[in-house]
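Final report, Chapter 2: Outcomes

The project's central promise was a pipeline that accepts a single protein chain and returns its three-dimensional structure in a standardized token representation, suitable for archiving and comparison. That pipeline is now operational. To close this chapter, we reproduce one record exactly as it appears in the project archive, with the input sequence first and the structure output second.
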Amino acid sequence: MSILTLANPQEEQLLKSGTQKPDTGRGGRPKKPRQEEQPQEAPGPALAPQEEQRRGAPTLWLPRPEELALLRAVVNDHDAALNVFGLCQLDAKALTNDTARGLFSAGKAVWERAEPLSPASLAAECQAQSKARQEPSERKFWQECREIALSDLATHPALSDPSKGALEIAKRLSKAPAFAFTPLSHLKARPRPKWLIQDVLIEATAVVLSGDSQSFKTFSALDMALCVATGTPWHGRPVQSGAVVYIAAEGGWTLRDRLEAWETGRGIEAPEERFHLLEVPVSIGDVATVASFSTFIQERAPRLVVIDTLSACAEGLKENASEDMATFVRHMKAIARATGAAVVVIHHNNKGGDLRGAVSLKNDADTHITFERQGEEEELTTLVSCSKHRGRHFPKFALKGEEVWLSEPDEHGRPVSSLIFDRCDVPESSARAHPNAQRGNKTRERLLELFDGLALEYNGAGVRAGTWKARAEAQEVCLGGAFWRHLKELAPENGSGLIQKDGDVYRRFESTPTTPTTPIGSYGSEETSPAKTTPTTPITPLGVGVVGVGSVSVRSGSSAKSKKARAAEESEPYRATSNGS
């Protein structure tokens, strides 16, 4: 085998096109061959001195220049490998040279095992591939790939900016369709993913922690990170101990007190060499930043990376744009693949209690864990649940905060405290509804008030959804899709809601429960049964006759009556309704 080193761009073009280099004389003019002389073949590109001895080898290593540059960049630069293998997911079939394909596939195998990629590791992979083959030709092919890895690919990448240049080349090459089936034998031999925190976090996955403000999600994320760094079980669940990278993008000053409270309450000191705090935002939406960050933290070999918070590290991305949130999660997974760590991002919920922003954030993530504060303010209890998991959903459990007094007072001499959380029993009922539920109930109450007003305006003829939605938007009760979500809850298809659909319109019906009657035949026959039964109060459509909205009753009639008279007149029928609800 002869390894050719391209001498200059002109010779590269000539070699690529197959044209011979003309023999030139003075002034650069081509020489006219003499009749007795045969035109000599154009000399090939200059060979490296160490390759002169192998000039007579039968095979040639002639990759396209961009493929050679790509391979050199991938082997010698980690950022380039992350861009090519992780972000672009380039397949070896996109390359045109067989030897280049072999080297590329060997490099990808090393990278997928999360091992450092270098000419030496690539040569070792080629050697392993050669030993695994039985055909002499295949074994010879992988031996040739090994020699190339130790010679041509051992030089510095032939690109001014290896990371950016390799990304551009990979994007051009990946336009060609490249598909490959995974043999079932490979799938069966693939090792199972390992738990970082048993039944909660899986290594090399993208995880979203979300909750309302003051739902203690950041306390819990810091608790997870410190447990991994110290090897402490997380609320009874075993962990894989290792290094942690914590991005405090909103500032790390709040972590000081929480760290001291954790160390005091647990009686464990966080190791300096395992807990790495970064107090600057990292733009996860930028490819170059992600590649640089992955290289920076790979030396620490982290098992867990925490991004606090998404909004602080999503520069240039829009939370409500599905494509942008899909990009954010894709880059989280690129960091996870490059480091083997679980990458956790902390995010907030919207007013309705759902994950804020585009739904692709939850759909594309591997795991979504929510935190819901329970009970009164002083109870400091949060409910931890899993709405999505690549593994299996863990059952809900509750964490209760315990106040820990810190060693130093504030600047005014007042004592300072923080919280640590321990597992507790899940409360069967909460003294106060969850804040999201309260907000949702308030919105629905306002929608019902608007509906009642429209029903009175139309004299019980029914209210169309479009009219109701327009009134809600005009008064800024709810906008866009939020109206339709509330409508589904108020008027379910099974007809069990406060609002029921009647053709093209909606009506509100409130039925008062009937007083139980004596079953016919209980006293021998229908004639002998007691006749004292309370008649059923008919279902009254809103807007006709008596209307009940919360604790307010409106009755059609003369407006000249005093309030006391109307109240006395309406008390009896309304009391019957309220007692049965």
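Archive annotation: DSSP finds 17 helices and 18 strands in the chain.
This record, like all others produced under the grant, will remain available to the consortium after the project formally closes.
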